[in-house]
Amino acid sequence: MLLVFTVLAAVFTSLCIATYNRQVGESKMALRMALERHDNQRPPLFELGKDPPKEFHRDPVLLLRVTQSGPEILRADSVSLTQEDAAAIAQAALRSGKPEGVLREYHLRYLLQQDAGETRIALADLYTERTALRNTILISALSLTGALAAFFAISLFLSKWALRPVAHAWE
User: Fold this and answer.
1) Neighbours of 73 (CB within 10 A)
2) 42: Cβ–Cβ under 8 A, 6 or more apart, which residues?
3) Which helix (H) or strand (E) holds 150?
């Protein structure tokens, strides 16, 4: 039983790690695409009933430009944000000193791009990443519990079946 638990736990753990890495990769790709798009260029459109284009990403992305006069909101896809919040988020990203990372207090992943006297910051919400990971962990835990219960029930049935001739011999 311990062997089955160990194997299943390893499988479900690797599934959770793969899900997390895929979600982080998708967020980083969305951030890079947001920085590569021109200021007035819209995100790619897709046709209903067909696969979305490869450059389509479902997470809301926020794009800020930081100049000497302060941060400016270039694009806010499905995000409601005040200028004060944008300034606080930009300062937190710049204070980190890293070109990319996570702003835990704002639940955002960010990517910085500096060029020609300005800094552009792309931000993506962590909600999708966290929800996907939470769902994967929940489904894995339920599957592990169900598999162990089924294995235990089958083990009991098989042990009773295997020991039935021995019990008859004792009588």
Assistant:
1) 16
2) none
3) helix 127-170
| Partners of 111 in beta bridges | 100, 122
What is d(CA 30, CA 44) in angstroms, rounded to the nearest whole number? 12
| Burial readout 156-168 (b: 16 or more C-beta within 10 A, e: otherwise) | eeeeeeeeeeeee
Helix (H) or strand (E) holding 16: helix 2-36
DSSP symbol at 49: T
pTM of the model: 0.71
Q: How far apart are CA 164 and CA 159, in angstroms?
A: 8
**23 is written with which tokens?**
């979600």
The pLDDT value given to residue 59: 61
pLDDT confidence of residue 98: 93
Q: How many CB atoms lie within 10 A of CB 124?
A: 25
